[in-house]
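C-alpha cells please, single chain.
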Amino acid sequence: MWLKMYILFTIITSLVCYLILKWMKKRRYCTDLKRLDGNTVLITGGNAGIGKETAVALAMRGARVIIACRDVDKAEKAVREIKIRGHNVNVHHMELDLANMCSIRDFCKTFLQREKRLDILINNAAMPSVLDWTEDNFSMCFGVNHLGHFLLTNLLLGHLKASAPSRVVTLTCSNYKYQKLDFQDLNYNLLPFFTYCRSKLANIYFSQELDRMMEGKGVTAYAVHPGYVQSSWTYHYSILFRMLMQVIMFMFFVPCEMGAQTVVYCAVSDEAAKHSGGYFTDCRPATLRSFARDAGVAKKLWEASERLVNLA
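Here you go.
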C-alpha cells in the first residue's frame, strides 16, 4: 500500500515539475514572414549560439548575411552550416575582434569598401562575467559588450543611413536591473557579475540614445533581452562550473533557436518599428526600471563613450 502511494506521489510530483519547467521555458515565436531579399545583414558573434540561429533565420528570408567574429576557423564552419540550414549561399564571414579598437576600425574600413549597403546591424557578440582586460585596457565586459559595439555602429552609421529604413538591434540582458552606471568608474572590473550587469545596462542606454540621434534619418534601434539561453558562454569557466551550469541550463534555459526569436522580430517586424528605442523580450516591448529610462544618463554615456574610443 505504502509503496503504491509512494510511486503515485513520485509520478504526480514529476509531472507537476515537468509542467512548471515547460511553462517557465515557454516563449513566443516571431510570426512575421517578411522577406529580406536584397538586404544586407551584419551579425557580430554570428558563428555560435543566438547569433548563428539569427543568421539562419535571416538567411532563410533571403538576406545577404555576414557574420563577424575573431575565430576564422569557427566562422568558416558556421558559414557552411548557415548556408545549408538557411537554404542560402549568400552567407559570408569577416574577421572582427571587438576587444581591439584597431581591429574594429580595420573591419569597418574593409566592410565599407566591400559592401554597398547595410540594412540590419545586429550587435550580438558578448563577453560573460570575466575579470579580464581588452587590448585597449578596458574591462572585457564593458569593452566588448558596449564600447566595441558603440564604435562599430558609429563607424557604420553612414551605410545604415544610406540604406534607410535600416535597423540596429543590440542584445542586452534583464540583469541590467541589478546595477547602475558609475561615471567615476565606467571601467569597473572588480566583481564580474556586476561588471556584466553594467555593460548590459549600457547596451540599453546606447539603443535609446542612438534612436534619439537617428530620429528622422531612417535608422531605428532596439535593445533585446533574448531570455536565458542554452549557449556556450560557460566555456570561459572551470569544468566543474560548466557541468553545474549545463544541468541548470537544461532545466531552466531555452534553446538558442527560441532565444533568437525576439532578435529576428526586432530585425523584421513593422510592429516593432513603432517602438524604436525600446526594450524587447519575448517578441514584444517590455517595461524598463525607471533608472534605465533616464535620457540624461544615456546622453552622458554616449559622450563618455565617444571620448573613450577616440571617436571624433
